[in-house]
Amino acid sequence: MGARPGLHLHIDGDSVLHRLPAHAKVVGLLAFALTTVAVPAPGWWPLTVAMLTGCGLVALTGVAWRYVWPRLLIEVPFLLFAAVLPFVASGPRMALGPLQVSEVGLLSAWALAAKGTAAVLAATAFAVTTTPRDLVVGLQRLHVPDTLVGILSFMVRYAAVVGDEMRRMRIARESRGFRAASLRSWPTLGRTLGALFVRSFERGERVHVSMVSRGWTGTFPTFATATAGLVDWACAALPALLVALTAAWALAS
Amino acid sequence: MTTPVLDLRGVAYRYPGSHQALYGVDLHVHAGERVALLGPNGAGKTTLVLHLNGILRAGAGTVEVSGLPVTDAHLLEIRRRVGIVFQDPDDQLFMPTVRDDVAFGPANLGLRGPELDARVTEALTAVDVLGLADRAPHHLSFGQRRRVAIATVLAMEPDILVLDEPTSNLDPASRRELADILAALPVTLLMVTHDLPYAAQLCERSVILSDGVVAADGRTLDLLGDADLLRRHRLELPWGFAVPRAD
Predict the structure, then answer these.
(1) B101/B114 Cα distance (integer angstroms)
(2) E strands of chain B, at which residues?
(3) pLDDT for A175-233, tens place per residue?
């Protein structure tokens, strides 16, 4: 089903990235992130290409940028750290306008911000074009251990259920006059969290019983999905190749 | 006499380190019957249900499903034959989409490809939710989730459908729609419920389980018309509800 933009990571569409099989996208994203991270600093050209590639991937999704920006906020703490680096790093100083900053710190800040931004842009392009179901099946196709796939699948399925339970507990607390206003409210919040854990654990037991009741013996069945052809794999590898080739060219010259 | 779909003889069970829940239950359900399992809270109804597909094993007594004893050797076939729909659909629906959830059971039985797809379509059609196949279970209404939960079990083509409190948390319209669907399903039915009018509407026979034993077994309208019997076992008809005459 199509999720409403802004509420869920995935957004319906019919772009090239939407159509690319999930397992090819996972491998492509991983390769792109690793290649970008491996670019030696300062890597002006390769990292610029990596960021432009990230922007290009997001543009390819066809999703409006206003839905993409909120998903990029996860990077803000890293950008703040990068912004501080030129001022706290040691080594030779240089002038940056009216400020004196560390040369090494400035280069590290650029590398950190560029690598982080490129990877987050690519990850966002992946997330908005891949349904949770496709991600789970894609990981199965990549032979990720069943237990890990199961944990991910249950997390996707039950996050909303546990969230609802948490909301009901909050309403019940507040309906009886509770306000989390000081440290003294922490024990109450702790006990609520404990109760939520116990309830979730019990639900886990009930889910297990219902799985076993339908013949589950420890292995998740794999359902048919689109297979990835040579063209799909080539498309998925393209972003990482672009960065790698630019880095090789930069190093050679 | 044909082999009963469910044949329980002297089933007793004690929870490890805890109380005795069942004291020797005898129950026989034949093909095509619709039986309501009634009883107060703590009577052992859910414990009994978990014996039907081997989740719990009787400390004493035997359980057979269509002549097949519930043992490790037959567990997968037993679980195909006994389709249990649990009380909370969120416990039953754990896959990312409705289609995958309905396919989970038959896939565990080894079905793949077009055969599996046909089974899923048939089960979803039977409970009138085919249009929800690609939705995520947590995006459905409670009534829709209940119907999908029934489809997950129907897809295994069970010999008997066991429903644990099917009307809990349903609004009146969803309750009626579910009754229409259940009445139209050509299956043997065992329905665990506190909802006595629902039992009267859907099941011609009822069994009262009380304190871990079968306290009464007979025509639903006869049992519900016996005010003393109901009172002894902490069962009550809703205010203003009159049992239609059995004859």
Answers:
(1) 16
(2) 6-14, 20-29, 34-38, 60-65, 68-69, 82-85, 160-164, 188-192, 205-210, 213-219
(3) 888 887 788 888 888 999 999 999 999 999 999 999 999 999 888 887 766 688 899 99
Q: What is the ipTM of this complex?
A: 0.86
Map A117-185 to HEC letters.
HHHHHHHHHHHHHCCHHHHHHHHHHCCCCHHHHHHHHHHHHHHHHHHHHHHHHHHHHHHCCCCCCCHHH
pLDDT digits (tens, 9 = 90+) for B79-125: 999 999 999 999 999 998 999 999 999 999 999 999 999 999 999 99
Residue with tokens 């030696």: A40
Q: Find, in chain A, the residue whose alpha carbon is nearest to that of B82.
A: A213
Contact: B86, A206; criterion CB under 8 Å: yes
Interface of B with A in 16-75 (CB under 8 A): 50, 53, 55
Residue tagged 């699948």 (tokens): A153
| Residue B24 tokens, joined | 């020797």
Contacts of B172 (CB under 8 A, 6+ apart): none
**Residue contact A131–B105, C-beta within 8 A:** no
Nearest to B94 among A133, A154, A224 (CB): A154
Q: What is the DSSP letter of B194?
A: S
Domain chopping of chain A, boundaries: 16-131+227-252, 139-213
Amino acid present at A74: I
Amino acid at A119: A
Using alpha carbons only, how large is chain A's radius of gyration in Å? 23
Structure token pair of residue B116: 């599996």
